[in-house]
Amino acid sequence: MNISSRDHSTFTESLAGSGRDPIKHIQTVYVEESCLHLPYTQAILERAREIPHKTIPDGSLPECGDAPYPDNLRKGKQTLLLCRNHGKFLKPCPATREYRCCDYQVLNIGMNCPMDCVYCILQAYMNNPHLSFFVNTDDLLKEIDAALQNEPHRFLRIGTGEFTDSLALDGLTGLSKMLVEHMRDKSNAVLELKTKTSVINNLKNLNHKGRTIVSWSLNAPQIMNREERKTASLEKRLAAANRCADWGYKLAFHFDPIIFHPGWEQGYAETIDKLLDTVPKDRIVWISMGTLRFLPHLKHIALRRFPNSKFFHEEFVLGLDNKYRYFRTLRVEMYKKLYALMREKVADSTCLYFCMESDEIWQEIFGFVPEDHGGLPAMLDRAVEAVT
Length: 388
Ligand code: SF4
What we know:
The chain has 388 residues and is of the alpha/beta class. It has 14 helices and 18 strands. It has helices spanning 8-15, 39-47, 73-76, 122-125, 137-150, 170-173, 175-183, 221-227, 234-246, 264-278, 296-305, 328-343, 359-366, 376-386, and strands spanning 28-32, 53-56, 79-83, 90-92, 105-107, 110-111, 116-117, 131-134, 156-159, 189-195, 212-218, 228-229, 250-258, 284-291, 293-294, 317-318, 324-325, 351-354. The protein has an eight-stranded mixed sheet with strand order 4-5-9-10-11-13-14-18, sandwiched between helices. A five-stranded mixed sheet has the order 2-1-3-8-6, with no helix packed on it. The chain has a three-stranded antiparallel sheet with strand order 15-17-16. Strand 13, helix 10 (264-278) and strand 14 (284-291) form a beta-alpha-beta unit. Bound molecules: iron/sulfur cluster. Residues 113, 115-117, 120, 122, 164-165, 196, 231 line the site of iron/sulfur cluster (SF4). Iron/sulfur cluster is lined by residues 113, 115-117, 120, 122, 164-165, 196, 231.
């Protein structure tokens, strides 16, 4: 085992006050033995030179304390494993037949996230607490190419923000640059980088040719401040979006999960006003809405870790996807409010849509169902091309 002895405190102190770059929370980097020689691994270790690192045999796990899961998540989120992905990188989003899905392709770049949202679904999906990042990126790029060549007439929307945050580790990995430059000449695909950070410096001066959308998850200020721990503030997310717009990127936003809480109407109105008053509307490709939904055991995990959070104590109903969600009347009330706030202000080219909702909800809120416009995937594909 090779243990770096450099002083990590200097590193964390140097980042204090520099915003909320999530890499400041990483305390130890582990590397699988067989990945150590890769030039990409070496480049990451060079950027992480102030963080202690250890080499471990392939297949073994980083030390994250003796506490059982999920009590060890706090420590695990400070522990990064650089390893090889032996499975597939690209998979369709695990949607449910009963709800309208957007036919998204998930690019799996690693698991877990150094930020800590109370509602994060990953807490219920995982049983290991550490962060992992896959360094066999040659395989990843080849898999993207094969998928696009196999179906040249299909348009793929590919996103990295399903099992982690797309940019949370970018200060160490630099993956965004690699992906943006790889995707720029793909005429039948677009890349979406979805984040709650303001870590966008690696996107500057890239020749992206409009094939990358940078997107932010947004929420009411109270939710962002209390329930999205270690994330960037609303102001920082919007400032980052503005910079990306200046650099020619297409933008997207996700109001997901919309959470019922005292003052929710004013809270979401404040965020929507700030978004649409400050970000160039003609750069926004889509805005999604989805109310809180969660696997039954997420509630137990989240309340054990965050006993002061209140929003899980509302009434929920078990949906067809075996996830709890708010009763339909409350979902409709919240969607109507958000839609009313947005519809007058968004550009005609921006696609507003629901993530995982029924046709009945689409009809009630929007007055149409996706099939009336060729289906949700086609609506989103058109929206990509409408923003030039
Ligand atoms: S930013 Fe996303 S991935 Fe990270 S903790 Fe929050 S919900 Fe989970």
